[in-house]
Amino acid sequence: MARRSVLLVLVCVGLAAAGARAQGEPIPIGLSAPLTGFGAPDGLSVRQAVELGVRQINAAGGVLGRQIRLVVYDDQAAPPQGVAVAQRLIERDRVVAAVGGSYSGATRGAAPIFQQNRVPFVVGYAVHPDITRAGPYVFRVGFLGPVEGAGAAEVARLYFNAQRVAMLTMDNDFGRALAQGFRDRAATTGLNIVGEVIYPLGEKDMAPHVTRVRAMNPDLIFVSGLFNEAALITRTARQLGVRAQILGEEGFDSPKYLELAGADAEGVVIVTNLNRDDPRAVVQTFLRDYRAAYKMEADMVGASSYDALRIIVDGLRRAGTTEAARLRDAIAATRNFNGVTGVLSFTPQRETIKPIQVQVVRNGQFRFFGVITDPEIITPP
Amino acid sequence: MLVQQVVNGLTIGAIYAVVALGLTLVYGVLRILHVAHAGIYALGGYLGVATYARTHSLVLAFATATAGSGAAGWLVQRWIYLPLLSQPRIVPLIASIGLYIALEDLFRLVAGPYSLAFSARLPVGPLTMGSVTFTPAQLLVAAVGAPLLAVAWWVLTRTKVGLAWRALADDPPMAAATGVDVGRAVGLNVLLGSALAGAAGVLVGVFFNAVEPTMGSVPAYKGLAIIVLGGLGSYAGAVAAALLLGVVEAVAIGTVGLLPRDALAFLALIAILLVRPQGLWGRR
């Protein structure tokens, strides 16, 4: 009886101590995302996924005995806003680290600010090579554009044995980086590219561009674009009678693409970093919890940003402190992290190495189609 | 491929024409560069997509959009333009720009910043003739745009109110002196022009499968370029300039490739105005 009382007291003291620490100031972590403007649906996915992650972590007791407080700002996918958001997160909100949940343009603007102020910045899915070159405080969870493009070229050869490949490229950082990787890999493997059409950002009338591609008589078209452009191209191509296989990339990976392209999306294959049919518990739990919380399907941008948050929290746990230099070192030492978008490790250049997922649209959903694991392709240069 | 590009261009051009005809109608009787016309056009897109979502009827979508946009345009001329007509011309222009911006933000607040999908099921499949394919959306533009232009043409040239508009455009005091009911003529004019804009909003929504708050921003200035290109106040000129611009855009983009589509209109405008200051079909 006496021993049980002592035990009870010890448990109570322990709980009280844990409680006291958990009641310490919450740890502020920043998030920038395109909540308005053309990228708004992606921004919504990012915010919902990261907020889900924060709720899960806090419900499990937080980290370092403290809760996490997420600070979210809208960067409108615009470089000047990206800079402003970074400064506000650092100076006003004093975040200990931030998740980059936006596109390449805004993220390229933000990365040097985080680097100068020595605040760890983990980027979800922006593909531009310059982002991580900002310095040792900047990390990337997603693919480099050229790596993803090379993966797509491998899909064209390996899965489709394509003989005549046309490229329909969006004219911005994202599209150009993908196209570069695609062309380089095609040159190595002898994949026959019959032509490339480049369309300007913000284009709505795709008919002239698709008509040019149609005249090249391709059997496979590698298309770059975000969900809006991707859906317009998919529909226009099918309406103009183009039967060639459409091969897309992570910009397609959005419920908005499936909604806008409708039945025309059936059979479209994309390279991305989220495999919905991955049996690992972390993936299936994320997909299920996201669906339960938001009544919609999770996508690539959400999953990548969710992983970025969890890598920061894992770094905090291993560093045992919020002190910037030690947190940075802990994040840099991330090895075999069990992420939704793959088992992740950082290279010395703070890029991740992970398999490229190949998904197909079947019955209005993205499903497993294949995977590219060849180290020659997936290892960042 | 060239023929296909011309078809692609005529489609876009027909949409431009429906928007620009409304704009030039309003300019003819009020002498106001009606920038908010693009807001009325976006309103048509929103009314159309909302109606279609509830009824799955394209006919009802067009009906709501034309009626709603027509009424909105009428209210704008009655409550904003008429009281400002005695002011210098810059005043109604600024009011019009302000109104356009306010409408854009209104759509953003009411319907959200995202583009809404307008996935109308069209009753026809693609039509292929030789190497040319007419997509269902292109057929819809032809099926709706051509009759709209024809009706507007008939009203302008074969009805009394059309005659009144032309008289007002030529010489307002003389028109009033010969017994034209100016208030009624102007009201009907803006009503028709705005209804055309509403129909164009639905056409564009279906054509691009998207209705969004900023959908009017390009038509807002491209429409002005077109009516100046066609010769300010010339109805046939506006329609011809719109079709021409659509074809030039599609063929140039389709053969040369990466060209700034929206700059083309203004490059053409500058080039033509240097040679013909009165516009392609305008009178000196």
- Give the strand content of chain B: under 5%
Question: How many helical elements of chain A?
Answer: 13
Tell me the fraction of residues in β-strands of chain A, as a range. Answer: 15-25%
Secondary-structure class of chain B: mainly alpha
How much helical structure, as a percent, in the residues of chain B?
A: over 70%
Q: What's the helix-strand series of chain B? A: HHHHEEHHHHHHH
Q: What's the layout of helices and strands?
A:
The complex is a heterodimer of chains A (381) and B (284).
Chain A: H1 2-22, E1 27-33, H2 40-59, E2 68-74, H3 79-91, E3 97-100, H4 104-116, E4 121-123, E5 138-140, H5 145-158, E6 165-171, H6 173-189, E7 193-200, H7 207-215, E8 220-223, H8 227-239, E9 245-248, H9 255-261, E10 269-272, H10 281-294, H11 300-319, H12 324-332, E11 337-339, E12 342-344, E13 356-362, E14 365-372, H13 375-378
Parallel strand pairs in A: 1-2, 1-3, 3-4, 4-5, 6-7, 6-8, 8-9, 9-10
Antiparallel strand pairs in A: 10-13, 11-12, 13-14
Helix pairs in contact in A: 2-11, 3-4, 5-6, 8-9, 11-12
Chain B: H1 2-30, H2 37-55, H3 58-84, H4 90-111, E1 127-129, E2 132-134, H5 136-158, H6 160-170, H7 172-177, H8 182-208, H9 217-229, H10 235-256, H11 261-275
Antiparallel strand pairs in B: 1-2
Helix pairs in contact in B: 1-5, 1-6, 1-8, 1-9, 1-10, 2-3, 2-4, 2-8, 3-8, 5-6, 5-8, 6-8, 9-10, 9-11, 10-11
Highlighted features:
heterodimer, A: 381 residues, alpha/beta, 5-stranded parallel beta sheet, 13 helices, 14 strands, 46% helix, B: 284 residues, mainly alpha, two-stranded antiparallel sheet, 2 strands, globular
Structure description:
The complex is a heterodimer of chains A (381) and B (284). Chain A is built from 13 helices and 14 strands. By secondary structure, chain A is α/β, with parallel strands linked by helices. In chain A, the strands form three sheets. A seven-stranded mixed beta sheet of chain A has the order 7-6-8-9-10-13-14, sandwiched between helices. Chain A has a five-stranded parallel beta sheet with strand order 2-1-3-4-5, with helices on both faces. Chain A has a two-stranded antiparallel ribbon with strand order 11-12. In chain A, helix 5 packs across helix 6 and helix 8 runs parallel beside helix 9. The radius of gyration of chain A is 22 Å and the shape is globular. In chain A, 56% of the residues are buried. About 4% of the residues of chain A have low confidence. With 284 residues, chain B is mainly α. Chain B has eleven helices and two strands; from the N terminus they run H-H-H-H-E-E-H-H-H-H-H-H-H. In chain B, strands 1-2 form a two-stranded antiparallel sheet. In chain B, a hairpin with a 2-residue loop joins strand 1 and strand 2. Classes of the chains: A alpha/beta (381), B mainly alpha (284).
